[in-house]
Here is the input.
Amino acid sequence: MPATLSRLRWGLTAAAAFVAAACSTSTAPQPQLSNPQQLSTNLQTVSGVVSSPTFSSFGALRTATGSPVAAPTVSGALLAAAPITPPATSTQAYAGAPARLEALRLAAATLGSGIAASVIPPAQIGKVYVWDVTTHAYVAQSGGPTNGVRVILYAVNSSDQVIEPTTAVGYVDLLDESTSSTNSLHVLVYGGTPASPGTKYADYKVSGTVTGSPATAFNASATGFVTDGTHTLTFTASFGASQLNTTTPHAQIDVTWSLDNGVVSVTLSETLAASDANHLTLTIHLTETYGAEKVAVDGSVAVVVSPQSVTVDLTISVNGQTYATIRGTVTATSNGIQVVHADGSTLSTAELDALSHLKDLPDKLEKAIDNLFHPCERLMGA
Here is the structure.
């Protein structure tokens, strides 16, 4: 998941969605973005960090045939169901959140303590996985790290499939640093070759703990950085789920991203609470800071499973003053979302462009976080 602002149908592609409210007669000054164009540029820079070819190849390991992180373990379902992973398919944004929480609860019921002294299967320790163009799959060889596994990364197409003939673009080391109380995986993504390493594109650790038998709570965290070779994005991410042994599980995600030159920092805090099997509420707090200006998005999203609907009530503020609102309901057949200034006036083209990038960035970063957590999803086992 997570259910994200960027996956919400704000209607940014249709001007009518922004002019539905009449202009207010209020004389109070309307808060403004100091430089919408610069905000758009900054946000694109941040999203570009997680779009490098090597990082894309790393993300493709989740589906590559023979990849050591392509086959899930039972308890890996916990992270797979966490609100870090965007829904693969949904008729409308947020609509899949109740199903994900239910999947989380059901997965937890299969777990014991969920903790072992290692997360990488013994048969994989010390192996190097390379692509075999004959079998069109990864195959294991000797020569990997003594406490983990190495996977050679190759250029991939737009469908995340390895291109043949292959072109190596880097490699990833998955190092097992688990203890008797915590599953932990250290992930290192490099350009170049093991004999001659290039740029370190990612360096982070993912840890997870399970409480109870059967599980009643689960917590995971990741911290480290990713880079495109020019800009570096450091991050911390945490996910917690509770009441997993009930029909009303709760979950929360907290993520912070910071660009190395200080231009932009992003924080996202999101909670999910199910009141019953048919109703779920998401509470969202998103901030993006650039220079002396802080743009925040706060509010809630209410999801009804059947008949399916998503009701949004979000406020965008600039340095603590209300700048715009996003309100309305989306159903399977209609989109009533409206975005206007606080005084009801129309947003300019530059403002609409900035808000478009504002809504896109969490989606791109959360997909990146999904890729970052993926090895732990597949290797963390009871």
Remarks:
- The chain has one domain: 5-379.
- The CA atoms of residues 276 and 336 lie 25 Å apart.
- Confidence is low (pLDDT under 50) at residues 1-27, 81-91.
